[in-house]
Every structure is written in structure tokens, then in C-alpha cells.
Amino acid sequence: MKDLYRGSLVRLCDESPEMLAKAFAKWNQDTEQHRLADDDPAQLWSEKKIKEQIEKRAENTSQSFRFSIRTLEDDKLIGGVGLWVASWTHSETWLGISIGDRDYWGRGYGTDAMRLIVQYGFIELNLRRISLGLHAYNERARKSYEKVGFKFEGRMRGEGLRDGIRFDSLWMGILREEWLAQQGMLP
Amino acid sequence: MLDIQTQLFEAQDIRFGPIDHETHPEIESKWTHDAEFMRLLELKPARPLSPAMVKKQYEAIEKEMDEEKNLFYFTIRAREDDRLIGKAMIEWVSWTNGNGFIRLGIGAPEDRRKGYGSQALTMLLRYAFGELNLYRVTAVVPAYNEGALRLFQKFGFMEEIRRRKALNRDGEFWDLVSFGLLNAEWREQQNGRG
Questions:
Q1: Mean pLDDT across chain A
Q2: Cβ distance of B168 and A90 shorter than 8 Å
Q3: In this structure, which CATH number among 1.10.238.10, 3.40.630.30, 3.40.50.300, 3.40.50.11440 belongs to the domain B14-193?
Q4: CA-based diameter of chain A, in Å?
């Protein structure tokens, strides 16, 4: 059997809400990080409030599969990744990832975590497809997603507005059969 | 020119009205017993709902409208007798980005293909762009819903995203198509008509 949680650079794990809240409270203050990962306004939350948010979303484990990302080399907590199953009947699932610690951007850590979460989606959750969205200006993310096998499915024109500038959002998806073929796992 | 005389909620044969918690649950309950209606409008598994369940949903809708301020829900009524014939909404509005998702449906089969959907969409777009001042709207349509595909194409929406095989119904896989219309494009259409 495969080791679902261990890649070549990172591992997926669960953290105590205290530990995670501390890390997020720090990452949240990096607005570039927030504006790469999210489309809601950057906000500063207290560690206490973040901990409550984490505890609240931990209640919904039947549709939401969230992990923390730690480096293999020195066991450092660097970000989070997760799948949210919007519909089990259609196997419609959304992927979200953020590498909060900017020292680990552009070095393959995010892509390694992406490979693990996609694998988890297809061989543990037995999903049929996985979807994701990103800002068009997030070039690094797009390259990473393409490496993992996501295909471009469309663009929403001018969906976002930041610093007075309109930008598109991009939408990508990967089908189970595409992933299996890529892994050499097709029968 | 600012035209506040033309009513936002009045069209030729239909009008938008609020939810009626007394009489509507009974009617909408009937629609939910029509699996075709449910599968055209919803991605959730079709399931019949009793009037009591519909009433609960209405309460949840009005609570969300009131507290979250990002949902705008209208019932569609026939002007001739004010009977409930459908629903239309703008949901998941993102105020900072100026966008929202639109959805509408005509409940009873005998009320479909009479142009009510077009009239409702006309009002919904004027509301989204002229009242909420959104920059763009999105409509997500299953590829098997040919009526809806035609409607949004007719109104000048652009197909923006095609999520491959995102739906599984009757043992077949269907794409989920996402259409977009910008405020500027809509405004140009209005000027062209004027």
C-alpha cells in the first residue's frame, strides 16, 4: 500500500488548533500570501478567533478533508491543503492549498503537497474529478497545477478587483482517468 | 438618463414578488415532486419536499437575505392572477469583487416555454446591474439543460468555463457550463435597443 501522507519534500498531518492558529495568525499578516490564495478581503484575525474558526470547521469532517503541510527535512509547519466535497453524488470536489511560509514558495513544496492531496482524493476518497480555481496573476500556482496534471477549463472574465485593477480567475480540473493514466495505473 | 418610473419588479406577463409563507409552500412542494424540475434547477439529489420542509427553506432563505446580505430572492408571479409560477435569485454576491451568481426556474410544466423565463431574466439582469451595480454575473448550467443554454446564449452571455464530466445523471456524464455577462456588455445591449 502507498504511504498516503508522505511525499518527497513534505508530509500531510493534523495539528492541534492552538498550533495551527498560531501559524495562521502569522501567515495572515503577509498580504501577498493572502492575495495569492484567496479572493476575500485581507483581514487580521486574532489567534483566539482563528482557533475558534479552525475548531468550527473541524466539525464538518464528512465533506471536508484538511491537512497541514510539514517539511520532511526539518518538520517545519509551512502551510495547509484540503479537499472539500461539494457533492458526493456528482463527486464534485474543490481543492484549496496555501503555503503560508513564503520561504517555501517556488521550491517544489507546494507541488509535492498537491501530488499527495490529489492522490488522496483519487485513491482514498475515490473521487471522479477534482476542481480548483486561481487568480490569473498567480503564475506560479498555475504552473504547479499543470505539473500535477490539472487541465485548463475556462476563465471568468474580470471576476476580481484589486488595487483598482480587474483580473480574471482561471478554472482547472483533473479527471480520475487522466490521473490514473498519468500514474500508469490504468488497467 | 435615470429612469426610476420603470418598475424593477414588473414585466409584461409576470412580476417579482416576495415569498408568501402561507400559500407558496403548498405550490413549491408540488414542483419538488416533479423530478425533472429539480434536476434542471438543482445539482443536489432530487428529493420531494413536504410543504413543511419548503416553509423551513423559505425561512432559511429570508434569514440569509437578512443576515448575510449576499442573497436576493424573488418569487415569480403571473400578472393575470398573481399565482406563483417560479423563482429567481442572485446568490453568493461578492461585494468587494462586484460579482454574483444568478439562477431562475419556472415551476409548473404548463408555464414553461411561454417566455416567462426571458422576462424574469430581463428583470434579474436589470436588478443585478442597475440596482446592485455588479460588475458581472455568472450562470452555471448543466449541459443537458438545453432550454437554459439557449436562454443565456440569447441574452448574450459568453460561455466561460466548461467543467468536464462534472455531473453524473442517469448513468451518463455531463459537463457543467458556466456563462458570464459583464455589466458593460449588458449596458451596450440596452443602448442598442434604445
A1: 95
A2: yes
A3: 3.40.630.30
A4: 51
